[in-house]
């Protein structure tokens, strides 16, 4: 490898080029900024929320179902209203973002690791091993993700770890397929042969050489899949099958608020929904731009 | 052609067997089958009776055999909650789900293909950019949330359409469906649109990508060079080529429509299979869950087979190779 | 003999992100009724673009910028798209280079042939159209045409497919066929056959033919007139005898010398030095000057204009050797 000086220069050049390509789409840049804001909100939720919606001593049923911008007797203003138990919607949304984002990202990362390991090793070792793994991947991918998640949760029960496990099991196949496709392309390139000639260990070849070149497509899939994972978790929680009440994600908030829809207290369901929507849309827009950037067929 | 169908059918049956094995092992090896299949409120005598009846005291291979035999007979267990055969419950609700899924598919195709072709032919126009932006939105919004929005807007706020339930059932050519009555249509419209939205977005994007690729092909240019009218170039030359990738996707997508109907049916209280399975999972009505799984597996395998056959009908290149 | 096609000072430019490409930059030539004209040039010389300009199928970012194209005394450049559509495949037909890509893979041969007839004659019956297609297929040498018509393009070999394309071009008895490298994608053995058949067909039907190719040898056998293109311009044109036996432009001379049969056995093949310049970075002055053996000072500064040596002989050069003297 080259010395560290030119390494850091290479990284600078890379970052510069990446940014100039990425910023070709103003929409993507705005989405990225929104996304960063959302992540910051999620991380600092306890610090910036007007109140802690899960501190039972502070929440009063007397405050329940207040519309947005309403005040209660003590003069506290609830910017986005309160829910059926009197919790401040804005705070609930901030905490909910934390859970939704956390579960979504964690499951995506685990699925990425597992899927990549299987995908790259399948491409590298080939033969029966590869056929076996890819068969499983194909069968799994031909089933809709929601169905798989439902089945897994039905078998194992509810709970935060089980939801994450279900999400990981549902998603790993996408990563495996992408990683294998990218690894296959790399494998046929000469530098792999060269590395093999140098008798570098297989693991070293796979992780130090093949993996970095698979990163672009993995990042694209990762971004879009994270959005999908967040959406899936929200759906499961809405249906009452995902996260428990103690870890309310945006999906659960929406689910809880659903019953109030018919009486017109729309804010309990809609605002968390808007927060969820903004999160997913901005991730998708960023992922879309990344995909266009790395798609060789669109290069003119 | 028949050789092809036979071959694919055999493959499908093999997959079915493998899946039945998986479902069986899932039920019997993960967790306690006694707990899974016997009503938790049954007393000891009842438990032992059912164990004997279900053959749970016999070796596992015999149990699998029992399972298959029962499945063939149409006996996939009895629901804890309803006390009726699980299969019967599912079959009763199937028409409602199929109806919803088909209508959704219809809506999404009718709109998505022309919109996608337009966006592909004129990618820089304002309308196209709006279509593409809309499709990203449609693709990102979780189905359940769109459903809630629809209910809030069209049912609660505007009061135009009902928000829950299935409408009156009418009859046409011997087929019973709520699509054939006005009341039925008003009930199915929102849930179908909700379900269709996600599909709409992905079909639009697929059609647009396909159009952009195909329109630059030599054979399109050649058709123009022959003096063929532009409308025919698009409606025959382009369309027939674009249908190939779309049909492949549609098969898979119909499957996911059935899957997502679980959400839509819950939101709109639509009495289909989807709502049944969600309720069953919630209520731990395991026999129904198992029965639903088997049905879904059979359905998916059959769907894949159908798509393969459709594909060979549309693409003559595959057809010829398949018969060799 | 009446003139079927007259092109004057045609310029077709491409406005790409990378820069302006003057694919066709001021070309002029004529084709008479029944005449076979060869348009010869290397890849990138602009010859295919010439063909597409005539038939009006230049896609963005390209555009015909100036000049005139007259087809049987009718100007084509400002013709309405309806008028162009009625001419294409009817009075003016085109054959493309790769027959595998030009026939729509999901439509049957008879569909693709019959639609050519019906596009220009709405009243004809399906049976009559079918008959005409069948007869034309027979004309291009395809046996058992009736069964063949029900087949799909991928069931044919390359040579057969090209014959189908030729048949399609001839269906409405056009006055002019533009053939863009029609035999390049075919096996050498089939090439000769197809060339011969096309020649016979044109003789029989009186159809004029513009044969676009990079292979001088191919066109020397059948054309009566040859235009040599380089970097978007015609550098020399004249009767086939003049061009082949008495070439005057240094590029033409180089081309002819490069044909293997012109070289002696055992001697290294003749080459024109250097490479074709990128169309984005054409040199100032004559585009050929840095590869030319006869360069003089002026060649590096000015672009040569066309000079008529006789009615049919035109040359674009400052320093050609007039070997007629």
- Kindly, what is the distance between the CA atoms of the first and last residues of chain B, rounded to a whole number of angstroms? 10 Å
- The Cα radius of gyration of chain A reads 23 Å
Helices and strands of chain A, in order, run as: HHHEEHHHHHHHH
Q: What is the count of β-strands of chain A?
A: 2
How would the global form of chain B be characterised?
globular
Largest interface: A-B, 37 and 38 residues
Largest β-sheet summary of chain B? 2 strands, antiparallel
Unreliable segments of 5+ consecutive residues of chain A: none
Q: Measure the end-to-end span of chain A.
A: 33 Å
- Strand percentage of chain B, roughly? under 5%
> What is the 3D shape of chain A?
elongated
What is the count of β-strands of chain B? 2
Q: Describe the largest sheet of chain A.
A: 2 strands, antiparallel
Total DSSP helices of chain B:
13
Number of helices of chain A: 11
3D structure, described in words:
The complex is a heterotrimer of chains A (300), B (324) and C (325). Chain A is mainly α and 300 residues long. Chain A has eleven helices and two strands. Chain A has helices spanning 4-22, 26-43, 45-48, 89-125, 127-141, 145-156, 160-187, 190-197, 202-238, 250-258, 267-294, and strands at residues 70-71, 77-78. A two-stranded antiparallel sheet of chain A has the order 1-2. Chain B has helices at residues 2-29, 33-37, 44-54, 60-73, 86-121, 126-140, 143-157, 182-214, 218-225, 230-268, 273-283, 286-314, 316-322; strands at residues 170-172, 175-177. Chain B has a two-stranded antiparallel sheet. In chain B, a hairpin with a 2-residue loop joins strand 1 and strand 2 (175-177). The mean pLDDT of chain C is 85. Chain C contains eleven helices and twelve strands. Chains in contact: A-B, B-C. The A-B interface holds A 139, 142-144, 146-147, 150-151, 153-156, 227, 231, 234-235, 238-241, 251, 254, 258, 261-262, 264, 266, 269-270, 273, 276-277, 280-281, 284-285, 288 and B 15, 26, 30-31, 136-137, 139-145, 148-149, 151-152, 156, 163, 252, 255-256, 258-260, 262-263, 266-267, 277-278, 281-282, 289, 293, 296, 300, 304.
């Amino acid at each position: 490898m080259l010395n560290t000086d030119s390494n850091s220069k290479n990284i600078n050049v890379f970052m510069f080029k990446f940014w100039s390509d990425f910023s070709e789409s103003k929409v993507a840049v705005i989405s990225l900024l929104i996304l960063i804001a959302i992540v910051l909100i999620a991380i600092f939720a306890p610090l910036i929320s007007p109140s802690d919606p899960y501190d039972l001593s502070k929440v009063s049923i007397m405050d329940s179902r207040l519309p947005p911008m309403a005040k209660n007797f003590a003069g506290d203003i609830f910017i986005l209203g309160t829910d059926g138990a009197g919790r401040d919607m804005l705070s609930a949304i901030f905490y909910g973002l934390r859970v939704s984002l956390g579960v979504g990202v964690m499951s995506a990362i685990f699925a990425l690791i597992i899927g990549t390991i299987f995908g790259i090793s399948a491409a590298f070792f080939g033969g029966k091993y590869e056929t076996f793994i890819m068969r499983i991947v194909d069968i799994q991918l031909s089933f809709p993700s929601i169905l798989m998640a439902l089945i897994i949760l039905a078998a194992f029960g509810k709970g935060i770890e089980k939801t994450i496990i279900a999400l990981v099991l549902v998603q790993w196949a996408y990563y495996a397929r992408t990683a294998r496709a990218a690894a296959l392309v790399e494998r046929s390139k000469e530098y792999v042969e060269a590395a093999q000639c140098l008798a570098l260990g297989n693991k070293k070849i796979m992780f130090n050489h093949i993996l970095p070149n698979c990163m672009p497509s993995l990042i694209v899939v990762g971004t879009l899949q994270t959005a999908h994972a967040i959406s899936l978790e929200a759906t499961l929680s809405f249906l009452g099958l995902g996260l428990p009440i103690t870890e309310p994600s945006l999906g659960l908030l929406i689910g809880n608020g659903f019953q109030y829809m018919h009486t017109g207290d729309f804010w309990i369901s809609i605002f968390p929904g808007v927060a969820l929507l903004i999160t997913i849309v901005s991730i998708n827009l960023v992922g879309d731009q990344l995909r266009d950037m790395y798609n060789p067929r669109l290069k003119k | 052609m028949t050789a092809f169908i036979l071959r694919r059918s055999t493959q499908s049956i093999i997959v079915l067997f493998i899946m039945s094995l998986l479902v069986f092992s899932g039920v019997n090896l993960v967790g306690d089958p006694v707990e899974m299949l016997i009503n938790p409120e049954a007393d000891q005598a009842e438990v032992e009776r059912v164990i004997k009846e279900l053959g749970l005291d016999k070796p596992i291979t015999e149990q699998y055999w029992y399972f298959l035999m029962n499945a063939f007979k149409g006996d996939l267990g009895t629901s804890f909650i309803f006390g009726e055969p699980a299969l019967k419950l599912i079959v009763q609700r199937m028409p409602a789900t199929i109806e919803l899924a088909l209508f959704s598919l219809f809506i999404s195709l009718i709109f998505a293909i022309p919109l996608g072709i337009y966006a592909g032919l004129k990618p820089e126009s304002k309308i196209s950019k709006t279509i593409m932006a809309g499709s990203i939105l449609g693709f990102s919004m979780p189905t359940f949330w769109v459903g809630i929005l629809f209910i809030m807007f069209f049912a609660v706020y505007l009061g135009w359409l009902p928000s829950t339930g299935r409408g009156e059932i009418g009859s046409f050519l011997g087929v019973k469906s709520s699509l054939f009555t006005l009341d039925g249509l008003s009930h199915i419209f929102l849930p179908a649109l909700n379900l269709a939205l996600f599909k709409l977005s992905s079909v639009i994007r697929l059609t647009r990508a396909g159009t952009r690729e195909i329109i630059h092909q030599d054979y399109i240019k050649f058709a123009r060079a022959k003096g063929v009218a532009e409308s025919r170039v698009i409606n025959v030359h382009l369309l027939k080529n674009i249908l190939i990738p779309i049909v492949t996707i549609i098969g898979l997508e119909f499957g996911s429509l059935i899957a997502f109907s679980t959400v839509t049916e819950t939101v709109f209280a639509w009495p289909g299979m989807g709502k049944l399975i969600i309720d069953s999972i919630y209520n731990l009505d395991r026999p129904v869950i198992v029965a639903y799984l088997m049905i879904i597996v059979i359905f998916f395998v059959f769907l894949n087979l159908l798509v393969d056959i459709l594909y060979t009908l549309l693409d003559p290149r595959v057809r010829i190779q398949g018969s060799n | 003999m009446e003139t079927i096609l007259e092109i004057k000072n045609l310029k077709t430019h491409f406005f790409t992100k990378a820069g302006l490409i003057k694919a066709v930059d001021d070309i002029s030539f004529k084709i008479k009724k029944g005449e076979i004209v060869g348009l010869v040039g290397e890849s990138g010389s602009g010859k295919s673009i010439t063909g597409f300009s005539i038939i009006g199928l230049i896609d963005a970012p390209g555009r015909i910028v100036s000049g005139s194209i007259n087809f049987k005394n009718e100007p084509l450049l400002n013709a309405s798209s309806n008028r162009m559509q009625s001419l294409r495949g009817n009075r003016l037909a085109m054959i493309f280079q790769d027959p595998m890509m030009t026939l729509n893979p999901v439509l049957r041969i008879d569909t693709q042939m019959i639609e050519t007839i019906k596009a220009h004659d709405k009243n004809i019956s399906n049976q009559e159209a079918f008959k005409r297609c069948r007869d034309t297929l027979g004309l291009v040498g395809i046996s058992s045409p009736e069964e063949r018509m029900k087949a799909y393009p991928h069931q044919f070999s390359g040579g057969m497919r090209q014959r189908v394309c030729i048949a399609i071009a001839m269906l409405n008895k056009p006055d002019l066929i533009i053939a863009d490298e029609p035999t390049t994608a075919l096996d050498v053995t089939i090439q000769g056959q197809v060339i011969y058949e096309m020649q016979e067909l044109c003789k029989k039907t009186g159809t004029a033919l513009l044969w676009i190719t990079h292979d001088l040898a191919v066109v020397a056998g059948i054309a009566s007139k040859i235009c040599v293109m380089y970097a978007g311009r015609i550098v020399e044109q004249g009767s086939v005898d003049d061009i082949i036996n008495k070439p005057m432009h240094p590029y033409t001379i180089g081309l002819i010398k490069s044909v293997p049969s012109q070289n002696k056995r055992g001697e290294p093949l003749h080459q024109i030095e250097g490479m074709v310049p990128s169309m984005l970075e054409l040199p100032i002055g004559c585009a050929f000057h840095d590869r030319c053996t006869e360069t003089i000072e002026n060649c590096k500064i000015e672009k040569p204009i066309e000079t008529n040596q006789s009615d049919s002989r035109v040359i674009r050069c400052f320093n050609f050797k007039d070997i007629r003297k």
